[in-house]
TrEMBL record:
The lineage of its organism: Bacteria, Bacillati, Actinomycetota, Actinomycetes, Propionibacteriales. Residues 276-474 form the Carbohydrate kinase FGGY C-terminal domain. This is ATPase. CDD domains: ASKHA_NBD_FGGY_BaXK-like. Gene3D superfamilies: 3.30.420.40. Pfam families: FGGY_C (PF02782).
Amino acid sequence: MQDSTAHEAITGGRTALGIELGSTRIKAVLIGPDHQPLATGGFDWRSTLADGIWTYDLELVRTGLQAAYADLAANVLAAHGVELTTTGALGVSAMMHGYVAHDSDGNQLVGFRTWQNTMTGEAAHELTQLFQHNIPQRWSVAHLRQAILNGEEHVSRLATVDTLASWVHSQLSGERRIGVGDASGMFPIAAGTGSFDAGMLAKFDELVADKGFEWKLADLLPEVLPAGAPAGSLSEAGARLLDPSGKLRPGIPMAPPEGDAGTGMVATNSVARRTANVSAGTSIFAMVVLEDALKELHEEIDLVTTPAGDPVAMAHAANGALDLQAWVNLFGEAAKAVGSTIDVNELFGALYRSALEGDPDGGGMLAYNYLAGEHVVGLEAGRPLFVRTPNSNFTLANFMRTHLFSTFGALRVGMDILIKDEGVQMDSMFAHGGLFKTKGVAQGFLAAAMNTPVSVGDVAGEGGAWGMALLAAFLGSGSDSLADWLGSEVFAGAEVETMEPNPSDVAGFDQFMERYRAGLAIEQAAVSAL
């Protein structure tokens, strides 16, 4: 977009702002009428472990929102010569799931419990059996039920339970509303209704009736809305929260707040049925938009929805690319020790590309990237491991291939349930994340792991914050189909590169997975011993 056109769009409010509170960064993206970023802003943060619970201080949430917005506004001024005082629409997204609890006076009752915590196993199992619907440990209702089982005093004083996104939305708008995609990580959504399942709500209330709580579960949860529905507007207090300088004007229409899984689907044009996307970062997960409900209950598979309310099966692995990154960093230290000044990006590229020269199965070696527990294989804790036999073909190429394969190992376990057991069909799979920056390596290995074509490209823009900005723009689009609007208005003509699965790599990955499944006993022994 030319500077003059961008200037007019900003001053005329023909823009949309998306803010996403991710696990390591709060990011703000302002897009223009062409849906491309005009400016970005950010604030780095990380969770902390407090009394054994992974959390973020809600005061830091406020600080981070202000810092990210201030950075964005400064970049708008620097790039386009205009002060940011309004936008055409605004939306907030954040890490899905978790538990933000307040009383009727707005006092926070316990620290924000994030998706990282694995302390609700008893509750998650009980609710899964009660509902005959998988309830992962990360879900808000699992945290609530576990707090009740633990006899936590705060539960009797509850007035609201939120995700991080719905809580931030309430601070900006004064309205307790949530997008259906994020809501599906709180409590099950009834098929075809776009609302919390009334029958399951009644079962939960009956389960805890003997406690004598004054609340019903439905009273604690925010109102659920689909993408495109108005979710309120930026209040005077919300405008001051974002911009204490007073330049940002209230009244901006707000989209339903969403989770980062939903904004990832939007940012990769993967909201239509039979589409899928894989996101690889700290964790790795695949989102597959379903045509039909799954035939059986699978505790390894999360059932959520797109921001439009269509059913999604989510295969989630808690451990992503961090262990692989640690190995690359170790090679970097070795290079530095002998006087090399190789650029870190060059190092990643060289090591990743070496894997292309490896044996199809990785030379008979095995690795687990488990820095944390991995629910999909039944492990509550993890120990990163690399294992080889005396007969393994121990080369750099095979070492790197084995660790890249390992990054997709737990994900493959979950996807086997969908593809082999449930017969789920996919027309396309889009991959995004830093793992895929080296052209043709991880993309090809993922295609082999899933035995399906995998596409990558620049369509993910600025990630989830851009996806949230698109959902904000959709608010005023006049379209009643998010999938159609994305396809015709945002991604038409987008350049992507697609790799078909290489039969040799498919066979090699299958051999690796035989070792991977058999070797889980080694991983369990390491957890027990160390």
